[in-house]
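Private note to self, pasted from the team thread so I don't lose it. Backbone tokens:
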């Protein structure tokens, strides 16, 4: 049987969970994820685990936070005056918003809402988390 190798386009079903068992993403109810091995299109731990697999094979890999979305960085958390929000936005904890800073657009999550300030977190929602992926190689295209 053929083994997946760098340069191959592969299709993979996956389920991503956190250490507490909660699922953060899965392709199981839809189409498999398609990517080219070795092109940096997925987290390196997933790429490395799929490399060498055969169609139908299943593996599980734990990707440390540092090798996934990095550690949670306190310097990416900022307090903004509520007066800087447009009138049509009522911030709520957990809400995701887009911001523009120095011409660059990025996503932030509302972490805390007070009377006069809102704390925004620009970290990726999975920053600081070890990620566990259950992988099944469905096809080598």
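Design output:
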């Amino acid at each position: 049987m053929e083994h997946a190798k760098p340069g191959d386009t592969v299709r993979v079903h996956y389920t991503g969970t956190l250490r507490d068992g909660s699922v953060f993403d899965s392709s199981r109810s839809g189409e498999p994820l398609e990517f080219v091995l070795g092109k940096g299109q997925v987290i390196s731990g997933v790429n490395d685990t799929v490399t060498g697999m055969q169609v139908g094979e299943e593996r599980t890999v734990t990707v440390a936070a540092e090798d996934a979305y990095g550690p949670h960085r306190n310097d990416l958390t900022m307090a903004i005056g509520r007066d800087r929000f447009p009138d049509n936005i009522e911030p709520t904890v957990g809400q995701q918003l887009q911001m523009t800073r120095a011409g660059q657009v990025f996503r932030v999550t509302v972490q805390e809402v007070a009377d006069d300030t809102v704390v925004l977190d620009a970290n990726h929602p999975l920053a600081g988390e070890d990620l566990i992926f259950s992988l099944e190689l469905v096809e080598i295209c």
